[in-house]
């Protein structure tokens, strides 16, 4: 086997590594499985969870430079390296807490590089844990050293990972002399990416707080204070505001109600001039009786026994359009929005307009 020109001590370390490799590959699979299962169980979202066993050639290069500092191969803590890449910087701490609960941590050799605050260190601000697998978590008598060998887990954000990869590819951290103009540009970019990391985290926190406030306002019935948008409409729908009307309509034929998404009605409600959830709630109060009359006329002479949960809202929109003077063009636009544009939508609008005339809804 090749010894890569190493001295006697380096060659012994390399041979020890070769003997450890089967155990290292088992550890890699075990660590990945443990991390992925716990991340999933805790409902966390990450962009990647990966692990690798150090390649022999890479280890030989390290031993050539630093072999004298290691008494044995077990002192080299990155023979197995795992990495968890998060979307947001505050998720780094959540993953860190998870790792600390799962594995035995070598505190003395673990490093939180986020606290170093070096000018050019953004991409290297990972949290680095040196760990071992406790026997209580996993053991295998065929690989008795599995619980003794230490390994590294890095936790960083996506932007930190991209930065570190670009730096590695450019030779920025390789010791090669880089002209000052490029160093300055790289450091400026590091600052921009660090700011972006912080801002993404702040934006997510702001959105989360906004959603909580909206949910509280909706739950307390302060609908006039809640702007109509995708998040607020979804919260409003969770209160099932159209169920009473749907059940009245279903009772006409003892029909079954099939649940469907009502989110497609959001642009229609906005087009009708509704700006708050209070406006939607007012539409229900103003038009529910006419919407019921229209549905009764449509279903009364049929034996339909399945209707969708959109029936109440659709009839409310129809009545609202007609009473706002939208006429047949307004109804056609409604059906084009709901069903996609087709010639049949104009015919459907014509028929419903005629029904509304008979019922004197116009």
Structural write-up:
There is one protein chain. This protein is an alpha/beta fold and 362 residues long. It folds into two domains: 154 residues, 2-Layer Sandwich (Beta Polymerase, domain 2), CATH 3.30.460; 129 residues, no CATH class. Helices cover 56% and strands 10% of the residues. Strands 1, 2, 3, 4, 5 and 6 form a six-stranded mixed sheet that branches. The N and C termini lie far apart (92 Å). The model has no long low-confidence stretch (mean pLDDT 89).
In short:
By secondary structure, the chain is α/β, with parallel strands linked by helices. The chain folds into two domains: 8-161, Beta Polymerase, domain 2, CATH 3.30.460.10; 230-358, no CATH class. It has helices at 8-41, 56-66, 89-102, 158-170, 180-220, 230-237, 243-251, 266-271, 277-299, 311-323, 327-339, 343-358; strands at 46-53, 80-86, 104-105, 111-112, 127-132, 151-157, 256-258, 306-308.
Flag low-confidence runs: none
Query: Averaging pLDDT over every residue, what do you get?
Result: 89
Tally of separate domains: 2
Secondary-structure arrangement, i.e. CATH architecture of the largest domain = 2-Layer Sandwich
């Amino acid at each position: 086997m090749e010894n890569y020109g190493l001295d006697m001590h380096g060659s012994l370390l390399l041979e020890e590594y070769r003997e450890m490799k089967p155990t290292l590959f088992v550890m890699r699979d075990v660590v990945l499985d443990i991390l992925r299962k716990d991340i999933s169980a805790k409902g966390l979202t990450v962009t990647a969870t990966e692990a690798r066993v150090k390649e022999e050639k890479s280890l030989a290069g390290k031993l050539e430079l630093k072999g004298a500092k290691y008494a044995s191969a077990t002192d080299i803590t990155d023979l197995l390296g795992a990495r968890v890449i998060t979307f947001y910087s505050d998720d780094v701490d959540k993953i860190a807490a998870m790792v600390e609960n799962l594995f035995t941590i070598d505190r003395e050799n673990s490093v939180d590089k986020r606290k170093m605050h070096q000018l050019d260190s953004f991409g290297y601000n990972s949290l680095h844990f040196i760990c071992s697998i406790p026997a209580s978590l996993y053991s295998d008598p065929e690989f008795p050293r599995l619980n003794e060998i230490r390994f590294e887990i890095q936790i960083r954000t996506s932007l930190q990972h991209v930065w570190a990869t670009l730096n590695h590819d450019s030779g920025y951290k390789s010791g090669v002399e880089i002209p000052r103009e490029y160093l300055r540009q790289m450091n400026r970019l590091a600052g921009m990416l660090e700011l972006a990391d912080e801002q993404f985290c702040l934006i997510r926190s702001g959105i989360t707080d906004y959603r909580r406030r909206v949910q509280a306002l909706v739950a307390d019935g302060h609908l006039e204070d809640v702007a109509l948008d995708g998040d607020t409409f979804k919260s409003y729908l969770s209160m099932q505001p159209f169920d009473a009307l749907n059940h009245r309509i279903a009772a006409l034929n003892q029909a079954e109600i099939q649940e469907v998404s009502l989110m497609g009605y959001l642009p229609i409600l906005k087009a009708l001039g509704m700006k708050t959830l209070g406006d939607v709630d007012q539409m229900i109060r103003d038009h529910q009786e006419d919407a019921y009359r229209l549905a009764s006329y449509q279903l009364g002479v049929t034996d339909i026994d399945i209707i969708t949960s959109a029936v109440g809202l659709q009839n409310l929109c129809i009545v609202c359009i007609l009473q706002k003077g939208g006429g047949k063009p307004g109804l056609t636009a409604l059906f084009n929005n709901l069903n996609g544009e087709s010639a049949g939508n104009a015919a459907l609008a014509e028929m419903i307009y005629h029904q509304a005339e008979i019922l004197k809804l116009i």
